[in-house]
Amino acid sequence: MNRRLSKSHIYGWLLLMPAAIFLIAFTYYPTVATLAKSFFSQGTAIKPSEFVGLENFESLLEDDIFWKIAWNNVVYAVGTIPISIALAILMAVWVNGRLPLKSIVRMSYFTPTILPMIAVANIWLFFYTPDIGLIDQVSRNFGFASHNWLGDPDTVLGCIIAITIWKEAGFFMIFYLAALQTLPPELEEAAYLEGASRWYYFRRVMFPLLMPTTLFVLINAVINSFKLVDQLFILTKGGPDNASSLLLYYIYEVAFSFLDQAYASTLTVVLLAVLALIAIGQFVFLDKRVHYR
Amino acid sequence: MLIKLKSQAKKLVLAVTLGLGLTSTAFAVELTMYYPVAVGGSLTKIVDGLVGDFMKENPNIKVNAIYAGNYNDARIKALAALKSGKPAQTSVMFSIDMYELIEQGAIVAFDDVVKTADEKKWLKSFYPALMENGITQEKTWGIPFQRSTIVMYYNKDAFRAAGLDPEAPPATWDEMVSIGKKLTKKSGGNVNQWGAMIPSTGYPYWMFGALSMQNGQTLMNGDGNKTHFDAPATVEALQFWKDLGNKYGVMPSGTIEWGTLRQNFLEGKTAMMWHSTGNLTTVKKKAKFDFGVAMLPAKKRRGTPTGGGNFYIFKKSSPEERSASLKLIRFLTQPERTAEWSMKTGYLGTRADAYATPKLMEYVKDFPPAAVARDQLEFATAELSTYQTGRVRKLLDDAIQSALVGSKSPADALSAAQKQADRLLKRYR
Amino acid sequence: MSGMNRNTGLSFHLETAAAWLLAFLWMLPLIYAFWSAFHPPEYATKFDLFAPLSLENFRVAWDQAPFARYFLNTFMLVTVILIAQFILCTLAAYSFARFDFPGKSIAFALVLLQLMIMPEVLIVENYVTMSKLNLVDTITGVGLPYMASAFGIFLLRQTFKTIPKELEDAARVEGCSTLQTLWKVYVPLARSTYVAYGLVSVSYHWNNFLWPLVITNSVNTRPLTVGLAIFGAPESGVDWSVITAGTLLAVAPLLVAFLLFQRQFVQSFMHAGIK
User: Fold this and answer.
1) pLDDT mean values, one per 10 residues, chain B (429 residues)
2) Alpha-carbon distance B35 to B46, whole Å?
3) Which end of chain A is more exposed for a tag (fewer CB within 10 A), N or C?
4) ipTM for the assembly
5) Strands B190-197 and B304-314, how do they pair?
6) pTM
7) Best interface-test mutation with A: which of C88, C125, C136 has the largest number of A CBs within 10 A?
8) Are the Cβ atoms of A27 and C113 closer than 8 angstroms?
9) Inter-chain CB proximity A241 and B405 less than 8 Å
């Protein structure tokens, strides 16, 4: 017994080893190294890096741009998450129902998922461009004045949010579609026989049953709201005046345009802390049912 | 002598190891050069051609040109390469990267590489305005190569339609406003044609360098450790830029996209645009109307910043590699070749004697816009470049944009930027 | 009866119209890309039913950037990542599904942590690691951070767990070693999971941008997305005709595969989602 158990130990660890090495090298080590670097100053040829304690975090607190971007990221999350989830449910219900041309509609919803953001960003740039862009061309027909969508700090983040919703709603739809197909059809029939309205059925029966999927999608949507920044590279570069900049884009800028790895690490620590909080929330609140079925 | 001996010894060793006398495959010096250009364009072919000519003339030097994308990419790549195994010996990089490269200890001054009187004379053969971004601490660190300025493109047909003289583009700020008003055509609440557009994304600090120079104010000192963002003339310049949109209504308010501006101009949505000379070839090819190119207008004087890339030589290189690099750079900047380069690419000829060559004289006569950029060099100044240049540049970019979109007044935006720039640059004084 | 009503009532028609409208909006970027790519540049921003068709934009795009090389790079990248993911994730998933060892649940939790801390967040530090390993500007360097995928491990573990233990025991009786059992029993039975995970992984890495942008420098390593970003960068002036032509070139293989195997794609994503 003992021997078999220890053999199992060895095999278990041996099989895990290759993946573990990669995870350590490219996830855990960099996480720890990032944390460590955030306590050091940026070194140059003239002035080598030195321990500065919490100095980087102090400059973070005083960095107006950081606070602006953190707020943008909150708006971005609040703007993208509920709408893309609501749309995803709507899409899934439609595509799962008796819709004419269902497969074409489903394909249309899903297509953005397989298009690279960086490529479609240029197309969206055409939609948003003032005067000659699509939105302005269309709205002019209805008598609206042209608007500088990406050049106006009040609308630019909304434009970025719209792209993200477009990109991820169809992806989330798939998860709902899968869940809907596991719901017994008798349930719906029964509800209608009872005289329930569709909305009532959705609110009291379907939505609660979809809860585990919603939680899973929610986590994905939250992660995306920190990860999806590709479109900024083409559309706005975070401007005007940082009105559309997001945390990960700022990290890229600080690290690879300003060459300040120390401050970039400090910003990364903030991002890691946020993600860790979400992860803890996931473990505490969501239980194992959600996706460890 | 020793160098020569050494290189011959190297050749000998190589020949022996090859077992054959194939000296043609044995290069005494091999150079890696980063070049900031998006790959595959026509520019890479021209550079490849020039490098090929050089290697034909210098069979013992091999040059590998690596096309590294935009200026920012090229700088990151070259600096990363220094730290890892395969450094470059020479590169063309953004002229404003000079201080950063010095601070990183990455480059050597050309004064320490040139030896002969001839070489020293060569150092002084470029337009002074183009050298401003290459000289600091009384030494020359960068040699101008791929350089441009801002010019004003204007739609002559639109001028005619508005009853204006197409050969008299605005020469002053006041004229820009009055002519711009005549060119702005509205129907109902919509503007069908704007008077002028100055792009304010991508490189706002660059455009602003022109406005402030026209108002008689530079943006920084020659040591790269002090900015003049809150000088009264600077604030006035930003106020004027903002007024073009908000007060005079000749330009859309808010920011104007750098990338799509050319399309706006080509479609007749704006009658004038300020843009890089780098757009000349495309505009010439695509414009369906009669267009002209003019110097930027003046307030107190005319003015534009220069822009673009300089040659640098890296510190991590042997004396042979340095002199081979120098040889390459000198080869590429000969008047004849500079003339050809300018004709093919639309970039500036970097020295006066290039414009004196018969080919370029002929070309300029046939295509006067090429002369506008040259003549404007007399009024040109350095592009914004300081220590911590990426950060300082962003401070100014943000200040400009926040003023243009109206979230801050020009004075507030610029004084906040100045304060932060001071904090960053204090330790370099 | 109520079913009949639901198919013919006004609200049904309204809903259908709304669903179609949304589908149209969702396809609009792609529709525009086709419009602008197949018409001469002067029609890039003007819509005229009688505009002449043209393939010139594709020729220009193909000449302006080494798309063939970018294709090859993306193809190699996606392949390398997929093979490595399959191997690493299979081994780890097998370990989690069928072996007991001390620290297993902590190890599993640590693996799942990567679902949150994705490689995108760690670009700064991973860049330093790659330059130490001398792997900047190599396809290996682009792929390494993604090779051990928590998602893949999790997905395969779930599948392996559903495979009856008796099958494994039978293989053991026939004298199969651990790896042979894995190869002969588990891998074939998890085929649909591999297809599902493979499709998700390929479409993810075909479209991935930020990390490849950071780590690649040259034509020989740049994947399509980075090549496309440089090619279409607004710095040099936006020319939508050529950019959309380039975009279509870049997405064509994945798009065509998607249109041909739509059902499999959607089902694979569903399969990957409900585990």
Assistant:
1) 48 43 59 76 81 92 84 78 75 91 90 92 92 92 92 96 94 96 86 93 93 95 93 96 94 90 91 89 87 95 93 92 94 92 85 91 87 90 92 94 94 95 90
2) 12
3) N
4) 0.88
5) unpaired
6) 0.89
7) C125
8) yes
9) yes
